């Protein structure tokens, strides 16, 4: 990380001119006026005393229910709000450090609480005066959606502050950048297949959660997938989302299951593939919450990731996210998108045409599991959304695809991130040291117990599952007995 630059506490002025990336598809004529506008953000007493409202940060009941209520950031915010005269978080409580980037709607800054330098956040600042009415509706949508989220792979909204003509969203800071930048650091701009499975699995779980809330994302791309300090992913930018009704269903299905025997990929952190010689039928619980009735005619998104029904302008629904998921997996494997042309117009023509997905012939890419990856991509990139994988039953059908065999979905947040070029090792704060040592002691004791009882047959525990949980909490790979 670059050396941090601190500014005087009394008056923080930061001026930037916004920029846009060439992969962003214009959704409004206000894009050009936004690109020319500049923002001067002043954190002085006059601004912080203007009309300010805060949600979630000062609400004790909300933090107690949040899955990350143990996070020191919540404690720091609670301490700041308790000392505030009105029990709310104001801009004057924040110390601006530096500019992180510019998005479609506003700028993002790295900041800290003034009295707690260990609690860092990302502050998304939106100048409402520079936006059209349509863009303002996107701002409102993003704030509304962020306030709904409570998931390991989605951002936490710590505070929503309205000050003067600015809307400020205080969210998680991800120090490891975005997945697109990490992809460009890889040899040939491609991830190994084991890393593709890891990132794709976490994105799939995040999309499943959004769809269960009736939220269609519409902006999936590596640039919008940030990397937390522990190496896991976090989706960002929800201004292009729209909401729809969803009716959850739960039922038991009869399916044939196969016993796991061996690892799917050498060195893979996930589980194992299935042995076709042993099959048995079992009742499998299935929960489906997919917004199948979602419908919109807005043409928004990134042109290389747009689904055919979105390009046509005849209306689209939840299927655009599963199309984008197929494009996403393709780009992680091949370093480019499958329908990319010489210009934006030619790319859109390729998407809207009857041309099917074509795979590049790269010798280095052809590794174990590639056949399953290609099959999944083909099923996701079906141009008719009625036949596209995931459009009817959502993420459940995609999770059952052979490409994801061996993944234990309830435990995915504890998987060890892949070691890739330019990646960073998992870091833990000093407050977690004792907890980590206790967990390692527990698994070492379990290891000793299993070794003593393995020959006696007193414990019937799946070896592949044990290999996973043991390696999750130990950096060194475990040798098989």
Automatic annotation (TrEMBL):
Stored InterPro entries: Kinase-like_dom_sf, Prot_kinase_dom, Ser/Thr_kinase_AS
Molecular function via GO: ATP binding; protein serine/threonine kinase activity
Localization annotation: Cytoplasm, Cytosol
UniProt entry tagged with the keyword 4Fe-4S: no
PROSITE patterns: PROTEIN_KINASE_DOM (PS50011), PROTEIN_KINASE_ST (PS00108)
This protein's GO CC annotations: cytosol
Enzyme class: transferase
Single Gene Ontology BP annotation: auxin polar transport
Enzyme Commission code(s) on record: 2.7.11.1
Protein name in UniProt: non-specific serine/threonine protein kinase
Source organism of this protein record: Corchorus capsularis
Origin organism lineage: Eukaryota, Viridiplantae, Streptophyta, Embryophyta, Tracheophyta
């Amino acid at each position: 990380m670059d050396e941090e630059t601190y500014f005087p506490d009394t008056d923080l002025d930061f001026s930037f001119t916004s920029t846009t990336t060439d992969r962003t598809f214009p959704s409004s004529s206000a894009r050009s006026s936004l690109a020319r506008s500049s923002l001067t953000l002043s954190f002085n007493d006059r601004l912080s005393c203007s009309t300010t409202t805060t949600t979630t940060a000062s609400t004790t009941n909300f933090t107690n229910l949040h899955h990350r209520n143990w996070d020191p950031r919540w404690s720091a915010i609670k301490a700041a709000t308790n000392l505030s005269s009105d029990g709310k978080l104001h801009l004057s409580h924040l110390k601006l450090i530096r500019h992180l980037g510019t998005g479609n709607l506003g700028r993002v800054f790295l900041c800290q609480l003034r009295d707690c330098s260990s609690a860092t956040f990302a502050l998304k600042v939106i100048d409402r005066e520079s936006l059209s009415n349509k863009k303002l509706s996107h701002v409102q949508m993003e704030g509304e959606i962020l306030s709904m989220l409570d998931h390991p792979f989605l951002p936490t909204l710590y505070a929503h502050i309205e000050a003067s003509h600015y809307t400020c969203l205080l969210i998680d800071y991800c120090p490891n950048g975005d997945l697109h930048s990490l992809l460009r650091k890889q040899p040939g701009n491609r991830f190994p297949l084991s890393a593709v499975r890891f990132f794709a699995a976490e994105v799939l779980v995040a999309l499943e959660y959004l769809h269960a809330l009736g939220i269609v994302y519409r902006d999936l791309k590596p640039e919008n997938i940030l990397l937390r300090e522990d190496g896991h992913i976090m989706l960002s930018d929800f201004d292009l989302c729209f909401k729809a009704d969803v009716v959850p269903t739960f039922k038991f299905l009869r399916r044939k299951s196969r016993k796991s025997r061996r690892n799917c990929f050498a060195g893979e952190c996930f589980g194992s593939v299935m042995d076709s010689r042993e099959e048995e039928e079992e009742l499998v619980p299935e929960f489906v919450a997919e917004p199948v009735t979602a419908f919109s005619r807005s043409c928004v998104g990134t042109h290389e990731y747009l689904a055919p029904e979105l390009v046509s302008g005849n209306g689209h629904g939840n299927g655009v996210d599963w199309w984008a998921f197929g494009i996403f997996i393709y780009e992680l494997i091949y370093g480019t998108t499958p329908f990319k042309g010489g210009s934006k117009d030619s790319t859109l023509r390729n998407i809207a045409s009857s041309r099917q997905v074509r795979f590049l012939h790269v010798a280095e890419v052809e590794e174990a599991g590639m056949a399953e990856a290609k099959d999944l991509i083909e099923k996701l990139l079906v141009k008719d959304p009625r036949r596209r994988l995931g459009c009817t039953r959502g993420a459940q059908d995609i999770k059952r695809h052979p490409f994801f065999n061996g993944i234990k979905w309830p435990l995915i947040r504890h998987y060890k991130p892949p070691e890739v070029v330019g990646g960073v090792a998992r870091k833990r704060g000093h407050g977690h040291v004792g907890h980590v040592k206790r967990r390692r002691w527990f698994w070492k004791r379990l290891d000793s117990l299993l070794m003593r009882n393995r020959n006696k047959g007193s414990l019937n525990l799946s070896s592949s599952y044990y290999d996973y949980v043991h390696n999750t909490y130990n950096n060194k790979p475990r040798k098989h007995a």
